[in-house]
Specification:
This protein is α+β, with helices and mostly antiparallel strands. It has 5 helices and 8 strands; from the N terminus they run βααββββαβαββα. The longest helix is centred in the first third of the chain and has 17 residues.
Length: about 170
């Protein structure tokens, strides 16, 4: 598997993956995370692609997963308020809108591991009913930090953060 920027030519397949992900989540006890709002909207994915913050995971010449990644200080306004506390206060990476085609085992984890290599701290949030993502994040060494609220709906999200070895060796 390898990761590359999403291209506009990928849009149809990417939107199909999101549609399938909504159905998968609903079938596995998580119908509210993206279902009611049909999240994410195509316009947002186009913005992600144009800003070069959308990525796809490729396996055997097909898209195995898609996700948003960005890095910097204070890049996610939703994360400014947390019921709990983040592990660190500096710059961080963020992964959003991660979805797998369901065809290739481990594609979602591969995307998160790729993002972990790009930064010293990585934040991600998920719905309380998304047990699959919670398990994946905890298996990858993320710490549950608290609760955040997103603008798309009123459902709280579990906020996770991972701190890399650079932070650990610096004592932060």
């Amino acid at each position: 598997m390898f990761i590359r920027h999403t291209q506009m030519d990928d849009l149809k397949e990417v939107m199909r993956i999101y549609e399938n992900a909504r159905a998968f989540m609903a079938e596995h006890g998580n119908p509210r995370q993206w279902g009611p709002t049909k999240w994410p909207p195509e316009q947002l994915i186009c913005q992600d692609i144009l800003s070069e913050k959308s990525y796809v995971c490729i396996e055997q010449d097909s898209i195995a997963a898609v996700f948003f990644f960005d890095y910097g200080p204070h890049i996610e306004p939703t994360y400014e308020y947390i019921e709990g506390s983040w592990l660190q206060t500096g710059s961080y990476g963020v992964v959003h809108r991660i979805a797998s085609s369901g065809v290739y085992r481990g594609a979602g984890s591969a995307c998160i591991k790729w993002a972990m290599k790009k930064c010293d701290a990585l934040r991600i949030d998920t719905h309380f009913d998304n047990y699959i993502m919670q398990h994946t994040l905890e298996k990858l060494g993320f710490t549950r930090c608290g609760i955040i609220y997103v603008h798309e709906d009123k459902d709280p999200r579990i906020a996770y953060e991972w701190i890399g070895t650079k932070h650990e060796s610096a004592g932060t």
